[in-house]
Amino acid sequence: MVRGLYIGCTGMMNEQRRMDILTNNLANANTTGFKKEGSTSEAFSSLLAYKIKDTTQVGPSVQHIGNMSLGVKIGEAYTDFTQGSFKTTENTFDIALSGEGFFAVEFTGKDGETSTRYTRDGAFSMTTDGYLTTCDGDYVLGVTGNGAATRIQIDPNAETTIDQSGTIWQNRQVVGQLMITDFEDYNYLSHYGENYYVPVEGAQIVTPSAKVFQGYLEASNVNVVDEMVEMISVTRAYETNQKIIQAMDETLDKAVNDVGRV
User: Fold this and answer.
1) Pairing with 107, which of 58, 60, 149, 173 sits 20 to 30 Å away (CA)?
2) CB of 78 within 8 A of CB of 40?
3) Which DSSP helix (H) or strand (E) runs through 144?
4) Cα dihedral sign for 226, 227, 229, 233?
5) What φ, ψ does residue 254 adopt, rounded to 5°?
């Protein structure tokens, strides 16, 4: 009987977690380059009751005498890296990636330390001194001739063209190269705030297949209709688990207050 309370409780907690992820997806439906997240559910391992130090039986001192399931538990959250649709902007420094790969960005934390972050958000701009930056002011990274990462600085007064390989041209001369990075397994990428990703231990860099398109932005891959339908399903499941708890509570009330009198 009490087991029903645990099952209802774990079900409500799981649906609440799913709802948090869905609402975050909907909140970022218009965020450039955003990749939606999802979640998995897992069953609790059966909890076994034991006989401990039972001298009446021959054999191991600890013996299984039954099992009890406590319902569902929250599984892993995952990111769907499916490419979003392209939006035409015709802005010089709006850049989209078609295929697998990420822009590299020099991120500066609150402590002043710099590190490399990766993003699909190509809504860039240029500072007065010619540096290419994100909308948050982080420097976009390029590569030098020997493959080293560097900030991209170009002539702010010259016309700029970026070809599909990420090469930056001004006055018919190459003035920079975007640093496009890809990873062998995206499971080794951790989502970071401000639409960035951070590689964790075990991440391996591979040659990117992405092509660069100037004058476009990649939209979020969130489908609002699908998310709303899933939200309705989660709400119904939450209410069902809530009713289980109410039913168990009423049954316990009867057992204590009515059956106990007899």
Assistant:
1) 173
2) yes
3) none
4) positive
5) -65, -45
Angle, helix 224-257 to helix 2-27, in steps of 10 degrees? 160
Mean pLDDT of 158-163: 94
At residue 71, what is the residue type?
Answer: G
pTM for the model: 0.81
DSSP 8-56: HHHHHHHHHHHHHHHHHHHHTTTSTT---EEEEEEEPPPEEEEEES-TT
What tens digit of pLDDT does each residue of 97-108 get? Answer: 999 999 999 998
Q: Sorting pLDDT into bands at 50, 70 and 90, what band is 55?
A: low
CA 128 to chain centre: 34
* pLDDT top residue among 67 and 166: 166
Structure tokens at 178: 């975007």
Comparing CA positions, the residue from 185, 102, 111, 110 lying closest to residue 141 is 102
- What's the pLDDT at 161? 95
Query: Hey, what are 22's tokens?
Result: 């869905």
Q: How far apart are CA 166 and CA 152, in angstroms?
A: 12
Taking the C-alpha atoms of residue 116 and residue 126, their distance in angstroms, rounded to an integer, is 19
